[in-house]
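Try it yourself: sequence plus cobalamin, in.
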Amino acid sequence: MVRSSTRSNQFVSVATVRPRASKGAVGLRDAAEMLGVHYMTVYRYVRTGRLDATLVGDVWSVQRSTIQEFERIRARPSAPQTTRPRGVGDHAKFVSRLQKRMLAGDEVGAWQVIESAMASGSTPSDVYLKLLTPALVEIGERWHDGTLTIADEHIASAVAGRLIGRLGPRFATRGHRRATVILGSAPGDRHAFPTAILADLLRGQGFHAIDLGPDTPEAMFARTIHNATKLCAVAISASTKESAAQVRSVVAAVRGTGFDGMVAAGGSAIDSRLAARRRGADDWANDGAGLIALVETAAGRSGARAVNAVTSTW
Ligand code: B12
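Structure, out:
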């Protein structure tokens, strides 16, 4: 199996390829010597996406030209120190490193990039909104313009799913939940990450978030609404044109239950409040922070109802 961390990801059977570095490439020990650092330091550069390397069998190799470029950047005089806290505003650097590790199918390396970002001051919400989301959106654009294959997108998506699984517990809060929000992607929409990420962000704010996940039928939204307590909002996500066209029937099913709280629609295929309202939703937001603001307002409005709600089981 050959796995490359560069754009040209390809898979070749183990039987046909003997693990060896390509022409012009060296192993990590030589790379360490060329850079004058310890082997483990070079290994860390690779796993955190700072140095591009290719894994052939179980041997990493680095192009000499990549080492020279790395050396050139390292030798540059560093930017003058400012009073800005470390890490803030440096997200772009981490997005690119994270994306490289995701495209290489390297969950461990991708997690190390996230840990480095958090050590530099990024919060788990920043990781979702300023690192993982931009990395995914750019992967989508690169797939769209043909510079990444569908296989690349799937490999990166598999890593993204596992990163979300690791980040989720960091949004757990203790004690009484403020109100409930139900989230789901419209029928036919296989994109699971938008609602998973939004649910975590809402949990971090003390809400009880029920994530119905991708491709949620109208009847499932309705049944979950019937069983929910202190429900203040329903959030419908649509990432494709086809699923955006289904939002209207989801809103109808939600209203058919008698629920009179807020119904919001959003996602990369619904780009404005007008587009959301045309599909019957009350409101729209561009991102997670925007959805939290909408839910805060909805929870405030439904405060009276919440007090009289059935005793919570939380
Ligand atoms: C990962 C991915 C996949 C994965 C999904 C894996 C999974 N388990 O989720 C796989 C490979 C399965 C996939 C499949 C497809 N995908 Co795809 N995919 C993506 C990609 C790269 C990332 C999606 C993502 O998770 N983004 C991160 C989230 C957090 O960002 P977000 O959705 O924008 O959400 C933010 C806001 O929009 C907002 N928000 C989201 N929902 C809601 C809801 C409410 C109520 C509110 C207020 C706010 C809100 O808050 C979020 C956080 O800030 C996108 C690129 C992109 N631009 O997003 C393409 C993309 C969505 N996919 C696309 C396409 C075309 C497809 C496929 C048809 C073909 C393909 N590429 O294989 C199939 C569709 C299958 C189907 N029937 O749904 C297109 C959609 C184009 C369109 N408008 O129709 C995109 C935009 C790629 C592109 N640039 O062309 N995809």
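One thing you can check immediately is this: The chain has three domains: 2-74, 91-169, 174-307.
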